[in-house]
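Hi all, posting the design record for the shared folder.

TITLE: backbone redesign
STEP: 1 of 1
STRUCTURE INPUT:
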């Protein structure tokens, strides 16, 4: 079996991995496509080894947090031959950059009927995170004013569409030059080019500010928040001071960390896609043996949406 393994601070392709066996409560999935995101790069480099489950640190395949594929065994309520997508636990041992994956059934759901595997694989992590964001961390009412920083990225594009099309918010999108028409077509009410206008120089007030770039701290955006507004950084670990109990910012900074997907959350995502309120955006698709170029693309600022790896040919 082929898959990507961590070696020497990076990823390399192995052609001889042992095939996994599905245990109780697991499905065996032939992975057709898998997302590639910054957490994968951090895992490959060893930058977050201290946060990982010991079982993952000892595993050969440590990357691949979201995927789409076909059930080929096990599965319980999932049928053999069924097309599925999923988001297993970030720090757990089940990772998707391999041709076969034994994964907990609870982290998998039938994939949207109106998209192909590449598109479905771009969704689970980002979309589940957005479900958790507006369900648990920063609920919004229709016409709420939402500022999306990093709106052209893999998660930002999903969030912007859901904020507008699902929750009925007024969305201001911040991204790089050349994205205005594209983001307007995806539902943005207003566009801000961060190279032309600093975030701190905006004059509007927002009910929710979400920073998918992980660059900003509460003090830098506090003056942009409405009286009861909330700032949500994408990486709570980098904003630990803002979230520390007793700090002035703690009550107005939301802790967002969707550690995995559940069947129920993935079902919500499927409904968004099938009702065409959420459109997957794939930046580029690379074959598994072209993973080095995929990682290079992941690090560029010009991309729109998710970088995807095509894993098994089917």
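Okay, here is what came back for every position:
SEQUENCE:
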């Amino acid at each position: 079996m082929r898959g990507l393994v961590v070696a020497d601070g990076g990823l390399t392709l192995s052609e001889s991995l042992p095939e996994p066996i599905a245990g109780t409560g697991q499905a065996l999935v032939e992975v057709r496509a898998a997302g590639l995101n910054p957490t994968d790069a951090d895992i490959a480099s060893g930058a977050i080894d201290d946060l990982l489950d010991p079982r993952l640190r000892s595993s050969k395949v440590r990357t691949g947090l979201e995927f789409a594929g076909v059930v080929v065994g096990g599965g319980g309520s999932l049928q053999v031959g069924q097309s599925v997508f999923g988001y297993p636990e970030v720090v757990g041992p089940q990772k998707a950059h391999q041709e076969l994956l034994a994964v907990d059934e609870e982290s998998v759901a039938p994939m949207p009927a109106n998209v192909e595997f590449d598109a479905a694989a771009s969704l689970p992590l980002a979309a589940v995170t957005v479900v958790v964001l507006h369900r648990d961390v920063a609920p919004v009412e229709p016409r709420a004013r939402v500022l999306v920083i990093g709106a052209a990225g893999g998660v930002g594009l999903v969030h912007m569409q859901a904020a507008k099309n699902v929750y009925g918010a007024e969305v201001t999108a911040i991204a790089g030059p050349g994205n205005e028409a594209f983001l307007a077509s995806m539902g943005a009410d207003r566009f801000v080019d961060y190279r032309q206008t600093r975030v701190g120089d905006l004059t509007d007030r927002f009910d929710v500010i979400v920073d998918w770039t992980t660059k900003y701290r509460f003090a830098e955006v506090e003056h942009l928040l409405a009286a009861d507004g909330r700032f949500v950084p994408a990486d709570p670990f980098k904003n630990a001071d803002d979230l520390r109990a007793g700090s002035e910012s703690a009550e107005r900074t939301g802790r967002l960390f969707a550690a995995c997907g559940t069947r129920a959350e993935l079902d919500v995502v499927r409904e968004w896609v099938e009702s065409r309120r959420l459109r997957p955006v794939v930046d580029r698709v690379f074959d598994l043996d072209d993973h080095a170029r995929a990682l290079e693309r992941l690090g560029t600022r010009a991309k729109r949406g998710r970088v995807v790896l095509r894993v098994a040919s089917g």
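COMMENT: The longest strand covers residues 26-36.
Let me know if anyone wants the other runs.
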